[in-house]
Specification:
two-stranded parallel ribbon, 9 strands, 8 helices, Ribose 5-phosphate Isomerase B, Chain: A, 5-stranded parallel β-sheet, alpha/beta
Length: about 200
């Protein structure tokens, strides 16, 4: 079972530095250094009740009829952080449509992050990154996800499930949910500039 979200002093410093609102999940594991950080910094913190109300942590796109996805769904249910499961409809374009729905939930702040389970991750990564405020990456392994979280503060993770074990998928999702919620200021400014220009930029 995936552990509770971990709040570290490094994570809190990143949020403070970028000016992001500090929103944390009630029941998170607070490290001793993070507890000291709260004592030293008088900043407002919003504590979310859980995934069932507004602002739930995680929504996923998955076909729950697949045997390999059933175990993942059970694992996600046990964490208490799953807000919604979006099942792709039958037919071509169904995964892209489900990914767009997930990105809409993130844009409306109904969920903080999302995971797309796909046989081929190219389409959902491309579709997700077309949405304003969405930063998606393909997760092939845990270090790759950690880097994407650290450098981009991704909020959508695409996992090609046929090549992953349930344990590794759980580890990657844990890194996503514990990662920073906003990218570094210079990267955030570059992304905002491109988004405001309608996706066009001087290269």
């Amino acid at each position: 079972m995936m552990s509770r979200p971990v709040v570290t002093a490094l994570m809190l410093n990143d949020l403070l530095r970028t000016g992001a609102e500090i929103v944390l999940q009630k029941g998170s594991l607070i490290t001793p250094a993070a507890r000291d950080w709260f004592k030293e910094h008088a900043v407002p913190v919003t504590w979310l009740e859980g995934a069932n109300g507004r602002g739930g942590r995680l929504a996923v796109v998955m076909d729950t009829k697949l045997p390999e996805m059933r175990a993942v769904r059970t694992m996600l249910d046990r964490t208490g952080g799953l807000a919604e499961v979006i099942e792709p409809a039958a037919g071509r374009g169904s995964l892209a449509s489900a990914t767009r729905r997930l990105c809409g939930m993130i844009a409306r702040r109904e969920v903080a992050r999302g995971v797309v389970f796909a046989q081929d991750g190219a389409v959902p990564v491309c579709v997700a990154n077309k949405h304003v405020g969405v930063r998606a990456a393909l997760g092939m392994n845990v270090p790759m996800v950690e880097e994407a979280c650290r450098e981009l503060a991704i909020n959508v993770l695409v996992i090609e499930y046929p090549s992953q074990t349930p344990y590794l998928m759980r580890q990657m999702i844990q890194r996503l949910t514990a990662g920073p919620s906003v990218p570094r200021p210079e990267l955030a400014a570059a992304i905002a500039s491109i988004e405001q220009a309608g996706g066009k930029a001087e290269w």
